[in-house]
Amino acid sequence: MNRPILIAIILYLCLFNGAFASFKIDKLTHSLENIEYIEKTDFRSESVNTRVRFIVIHYTSSNWEQSLKILTKADYEVSSHYLIPESFDESYKEDDLFVYKIVDENDRAWHAGESNWQGRSHINDQSIGIELVNNSECYYQPNNKKLNYKENYICSFYDYDPKQIQLLIKAIKPMLERHDEIKPTHIIGHSDIAPNRKYDPGPRFPWYTLYQNGIGAWYDKETVDKYWRQFTTTKMPSTFDIQCALRKYGYKVDLTGIEDEQTYSVVRAFHYHFQSWNNKGDIDVGTVSTLWALLEKYRPDVLDNNSKIACLED
């Protein structure tokens, strides 16, 4: 076959294929225009869970007006899913208190920061953040060499408005129905998930009141008494075992075997949550008895028949 004929055949085939492809595209486009798109929900997979597994409670350290500004304006780079005002705040102009949703629960709010709970990090990705208007606040002097880590901060904590707490309870109850991954030990404070840098919602927050309304975790006092008698009669668990127990419950703590700064911060957060009258951050028999009572109730798998806890060193 001579060259001119070969070139002519190739050109013909190219033109034919192009026309055929154009015909197929036109036909497909025409077909799509005549199809009604309908999604059916007759069948649902059982292999699914919710994004949300934690509820994190905060205080705002400011009044309503400033809190709303901080949590809604992009300049501040912080947000929460809900904001609840308190009574007698002159900057709040409504006649009654309401729960304000400012981020949808399916979206990620920026409220937790660097955080960890029960071995999970990036708590923002997995939680609902609730901010309560409350003027409690802490101040720090981290670079003052005259002060050790137990002395380089000072806090002012204020009581929560009872009406505000009732609204909080009413807000959380349907959340638990919407998100079945939220277990009692998954309802926590900012200080629980970031004990080295956060103090909210502080020792004045009524965790026990929430528990009485079916929200969150709390110990059984009879079990605390049992462990208190045991640990005052026999040897109290070692610092290493206490660190291990705190970790098993949910706190991020390195297993150093010494009462160091990170352990102090974690114990202080534990006190804020479960022993508000004893919030010095020091380990004592009451602290350990309460911790063991919580483990027996919510993490019985980590204790043996002799109430011993097993933990491998890091």
Task: Describe the protein in words.
- With 314 residues, this protein is of the alpha/beta class.
- The protein has 2 domains: 54-212, Peptidoglycan recognition protein-like (Lysozyme-like, 3-Layer(aba) Sandwich); 221-302, PGBD-like superfamily/PGBD (Muramoyl-pentapeptide Carboxypeptidase, domain 1), CATH 1.10.101.10.
- It has helices spanning 3-33, 64-72, 162-178, 190-193, 207-212, 221-233, 239-249, 261-274, 285-298; strands spanning 54-59, 82-84, 100-101, 116-117, 120-121, 127-132, 137-140, 153-156, 187-189.
- The strands form 3 sheets. The chain has a 5-stranded mixed sheet with strand order 3-2-6-1-9.
- A hairpin with a 2-residue loop joins strand 4 (116-117) and strand 5 (120-121).
Q: How does CATH name the architecture of the largest domain?
A: 3-Layer(aba) Sandwich
Assign the structural class, choosing from mainly alpha, mainly beta, alpha/beta, alpha+beta, or little secondary structure: alpha/beta
- Annotation field: number of helices: 9
Shape: globular
Strand content: 5-15%
The profile of the biggest β sheet is: 5 strands, mixed
Show unreliable segments. none
Q: How many discrete domains?
A: 2
What's the count of strands? 9
Gyration radius from CA atoms, angstroms: 29 Å
The pLDDT mean sits at 91
Distance from first to last alpha carbon: 79 Å
Q: What is the fold named in CATH at topology level of the largest domain?
A: Lysozyme-like
Query: How do the SSEs run, as a string of H and E?
Result: HEHEEEEEEEHEHHHHHH
Instruction: State the name of the first-level CATH class of the largest domain.
Output: Alpha Beta
CATH superfamily (homologous) name of the largest domain? Peptidoglycan recognition protein-like
Q: In which range does the helix fraction lie?
A: 25-40%
Strand order of the largest sheet: 3-2-6-1-9
